[in-house]
Amino acid sequence: MSNVILVKSDFDRFSEWADEFRKHDILAVPWDDMARHRETVKYALVWQPEPGALASLPNLEVIFSVAAGIDHLKGEGLVPAGIPVVRMVEDSLTAGMVEYIVYNVLRFHREMPVYERDQTNRIWKPRVQQSAWDRTAGILGLGVLGSAAAVALHRLQFNVIGWSRNPKQVPEVTSYFGQDQLEPFLEQTEFLVILLPLTEDTGGIVNRDFLNKLPRGAYVINAGRGPLVVDEDLLAALDQGQIAGAALDVFNQEPLPTESPYWKHPAVTITPHVASITLPATSTRHVADNIQRHREGKPLTHLADLSRGY
């Protein structure tokens, strides 16, 4: 096979990757065998590579991120100069993220955490249910994943608004953009869905001032990146009742340290960075299509810009 790809994924699933790539006439090589295949590797599919590793491949032509985000590739010595990086954008990854977001918005909307506590305490207390169309979900980050989540929530009849750095158009979604429009976006948002990429501008964006601009009793769902959130400020907002609950899939430090207050906080739900997982069966099509485009001299799709962070 003339197409050889080096694989370092986020789970120990190399045999799955190899089987799926073989269907596309691509030979997958495990990361631990890099030295033996150094001269033949033209492509690399990676998650958190070690500094200098990719630079040691003399014939490397394209780097593919296992994840939709590329912050795991930002850092000195991680990506050789001049080598293009392609983001992971494919249907199953998008579907998984939409499921996670819709599930958590509905869970908070229907007050399921409250009913779960009532069950533990054997309390029978029906509560008046609000209509979805009377509540507003705000998507912070209207990229591929954010736009898909916005459309899904709109179909469930939520009022959906979105915010992004630059203007975006999503059907049936009121779009806000730029720093000047962030506050009016926040003032309406009862369910905040965080899906921004991690950049120099967005790190720590969800801080005390940010959270205080939300309606009191709002909910926070972070499936973007952990460092977008200032942990101390979110915990304080939860303790003060400004934020009624949070569903957190990503954290400033992963794995989440055992001493983190999030573990035992009654208003916090934790998942271990599994909101959406890259599946070999579908994501290899995205990689194979781009390899074919590269061989034919066509532009790569979903090309990342490391300087922007996405």
Percent strand: 15-25%
SSE succession: EHEEEEHHEHEEHEHEHEEH
Structural class: alpha/beta
Indicate the CATH architecture of the largest domain.
3-Layer(aba) Sandwich
What is the CATH fold-level name of the largest domain?
Answer: Rossmann fold
Instruction: Using the alpha-carbon principal axes, give the shape.
Output: elongated
User: For the record, what is the CATH homologous superfamily label of the largest domain?
Assistant: NAD(P)-binding Rossmann-like Domain
Assembly classification:
single chain
Rounded Rg:
21 Å
Largest sheet: 7 strands, parallel
Count of folded domains: 2
**Unreliable spans:** none
Mean pLDDT: 96
Structural description of this entry:
By secondary structure, the protein is an alpha/beta fold. It is built from 8 helices and 12 strands. The strands form 2 sheets. Strands 8-7-6-9-10-11-12 form a 7-stranded parallel sheet, with helices on both faces. A 5-stranded parallel sheet has the order 2-1-3-4-5, covered by helices on one side. It starts with a strand and ends in a 15-residue tail after the last helix. Helix 1 crosses helix 8 and helix 2 packs across helix 4. The longest helix is centred in the first third of the chain and has 19 residues. Helix 1 links the parallel strand 1 and strand 2. It folds into 2 domains: 105 residues, 3-Layer(aba) Sandwich (Rossmann fold), CATH 3.40.50.720; 180 residues, NAD(P)-binding Rossmann-like Domain (Rossmann fold). Helices cover 28% and strands 17% of the residues. The model has no long low-confidence stretch (mean pLDDT 96).
